[in-house]
Amino acid sequence: MGLPTMVLSQPVVIHSGAGAVPIGTYLGHLVAGVDQAGVLEGVRFPIRSGMVPGVLSEAQARTASGLFRPEWLAHPVFLVGTDPLSRQWLSQHRQALIALGASGLVVQAESERAFKQVQQLAGGASLAPMVGDWLTTTLRRAGVQTYPLLVLADGRLSSSPPRTAGASPTAAPMQEARP
């Protein structure tokens, strides 16, 4: 006779108060790898965040400066979708993201298949589906509506990893993809 399985419809809050940190930024490292067991259990598709594909402007990055306290971030976090612009960005910056130890969150995916395709494209970079909306809501309230983007470990937002993180100096600048 097996043990009963408990299914929760809402996340369990362990601590919510001063200094509380959303766990979503830590999940990417736990679920690295394509088709890892349990990664997509309970995830409902489509995944939508209210953000749109586009290029983060310097003005948006400045406006959101200080939005994330460095003590909240154990490592950089990047946001991508399954759209062509996100795929291009991920392909262009994959090695630098891996060198940074960045975790990725997919904020837009129409299906499990589309998510898995982007996860495969990540090629070793940690990538998890976005569950919950704290991060994207916080960004949108600060005027940041677009992804892909990178939240650096010091809390700054960037449209790409720093060159010292293993980015190719000959990489072409990212162009906005048109569907």
Report what the structure shows.
With 179 residues, the protein is an alpha/beta fold. Helix content is 27%, strand content 13%. It is built from five helices and seven strands, in the order αβαβαβαβαβββ. Strands 4-3-2-6-7 form a five-stranded mixed β-sheet.
Give a quick precis of the structure:
The chain is built from 5 helices and 7 strands; from the N terminus they run H-E-H-E-H-E-H-E-H-E-E-E.
By DSSP (H or I, 4+ residues per run), the number of helices equals: 5
Helix content: 25-40%
Strand order of the largest sheet: 4-3-2-6-7
* Basic shape: globular
* Succession of helices and strands: HEHEHEHEHEEE
By secondary-structure content and strand pairing, the structural class works out as: alpha/beta
**DSSP strand (E) fraction?**
5-15%
Task: Give the termini distance in whole angstroms.
Answer: 52 Å
Q: Can you summarize the main beta sheet?
A: 5 strands, mixed
Please compute the radius of gyration using only Cα atoms.
Answer: 16 Å
Rounded mean pLDDT is 78
Indicate the low-confidence ranges by residue numbers.
27-32, 166-179
